[in-house]
Amino acid sequence: MRRARILVVDDQLPNRELLRRVLQLEGYEISEATNGREALESVRAALPDLILLDALMPELDGFGVVSALKRDPATRLVPIVMVTTLETLANKLRAVDLGVDDFLNKPVNLTELTTRVRSLLALKRFTDELEHAARVLESLASVVERRDGYTGLHCQRVGAYARLVGSALGLDEETLDVVRLGGVLHDLGKVAMPDEVLRKPGRLTDAERALIETHAPIGADLCLPMRTMERSVPILRHHHERLDGTGYPGKLRGEQISLEVRVVTVVDIYDALSTRRPYREPTPPETSMRILREEAERGWWDERVVECLADMISGGQIASVAETVEASAALRAVAPPDPKAAG
Predict the structure, then answer these.
(1) Is the Cα dihedral 138, 144, 149, 150 positive or negative?
(2) How many domains does the chain have?
(3) 52 — phi, psi (to 5°)?
(4) Is residue 159 pLDDT above 60, yes or no?
(5) Domain of residue 311, residue span
(6) Are both 192 and 293 inside the same structural domain?
(7) 246 and 201 in a common domain
(8) How many helices (H) and strands (E) does the chain have?
(9) Measured between alpha carbons, how far is 192 from 218 in angstroms, rounded to an integer?
(10) Residue 134 resides in a domain
(11) In angstroms, rounded to a whole number, what is the distance separating the alpha carbons of residues 246 and 258?
(12) Which of 11, 56, 141, 336 fits a 20 to 30 Å CA distance from 250?
């Protein structure tokens, strides 16, 4: 098993040497930085499992480092322990607001240091395992897409469109991640559908339609045991609900349907209309929006979400996102296998 990597950031050499000696005896791999800018460069070069960070440093202080790392999705889950002489409540509240995970006061109690480090690294391993499981589910969703030769990158586009529209509607970053993941996984339950139904070139019978409708609760139930998926599960279960209560599977109405679900539902329909099917050609954007507006007036969809999507289409953002999804898929298709992944 790979040794945990810890980055020690402090402008005072004696402080770094003490922490390095103690943590190396515990079996950790240690790297060092003497200021905030060096710390960010070190993180970019090799992602650590934990950072021990001084607050007061030249060039860029600890608060600036925390702010930069916690804003970046690639680094925001790395635990940060601020090791400092600053004991005022105002400084601690500022650090907590920025995302610091724990504090150690100088001079450091070595027993407390090793105990806190072990605890945070155990939590980091658990988080990494859950993140890996979520990526497995995303891969499974891609398999579902490939089974249906007509939807292509539908789920990837729905996730990207949902994030774009959600951002325009003012959703926070954490909720945008939930919406994107829910969009990517919304059809996960179709993995349980037989090929003769999923790939049928034509209209479905009533029995086949009833079977297809079970994909929503099946997908939600697949993700339900994962705590990291907790907020995305309602999207998988309810993305076919309608505001007037005529949708499925729960016949939810109005405010029972969250904004996150409403966003994914609208962009899902838009992309479905825009996709070629055996029985029809893709619908042009203006026609798709006319259909969505008519259905919103009928009481099915959230008019605010529909109009926000229309703005994104007219402004070219949707087309740009679609191109990015296509380009990313093409790169993944030709990329050589990662030798580390095999290990």
Answers:
(1) negative
(2) 2
(3) -100, 115
(4) yes
(5) 148-342
(6) yes
(7) yes
(8) 16, 5
(9) 8
(10) no
(11) 16
(12) 141
